[in-house]
Structure formats: C-alpha cells, structure tokens
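Quick one, T. Sequence first:
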Amino acid sequence: MKRVDVVSSILIDGKNKKIVLVQNKKGDTSYWSYPGGAVEEGETLEQAVIRETKEEAGLDIEVTGGLQSIREKFFPGKGHHVVFFTFYAKIIGGELAPADPDGEIVDVQWFDYEEARKLLAYIPDKTKLKFGEENPSVPYILED
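Structure tokens:
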C-alpha cells in the first residue's frame, strides 16, 4: 500500500461561534470537510496545510495551536494507507473563496458549530472537535 499524508486546518471564529468548511466534489457526490489535502513531495506538514488552505479556501493561515488530531485509514480499493494530520490555525489574510486548481472544491463557507457538527458526522467521535469548549492540542515540531 502507498502511504499518503493528508493535512487539514481548523479555522474557528470563536467570537461568532463559526468554523470554515469546504465542499468537496467527487464524481456525482459531495461532502463538507476542513480545508486541506495531500502533502506534496519535499513539503513539510506545515507548508502543506498552508498551501492547501489557500488553494481550497482562499485564506492565508498561520498554524497556531499544534495538532488537533492524527488519524489513519486504509483504502484497499485505491491501495492507499492515509495518515490525516489536522492542525489548529488562524486566518492572517486572503478572501474566503475556492481557489482550487483541481476544481474539486465547489464551495467554502462559515458554518455555526451545530451545523458543522452535522456536516462532519463522518469524523470519528474520538477526534471530533468539541465546539464551544477548550480543545486540547498536541505540539507539532519540525526538527532540524
């Protein structure tokens, strides 16, 4: 199986209790997720999440609170072993709009916490963001 690293960013407006989600289109179906995507060769996880968030949501970000979760999933049909790295980040610029060169992102929006929870129902309970609560983070360190 081929290992694929995938990164995503959690962008929260705590004051207004909203979170950014992107709508992914795969064939005839679509689903909402945190902005993110595959890490390219030679990229760090942090570089990848910054690039992917810009491409998918049009936003410039800074990784702030470390990792929210690390998850793994096997996709036998595709021959992939995927490791998902989800980072806390803050918006430092840009405009909310899909800028995806692959055309897989069809929409990007702010959602209130309750609606986001419903749209992200496929995420395992152990790694779900606790909206409106303090969420622990794990540090991300790139060693020299």
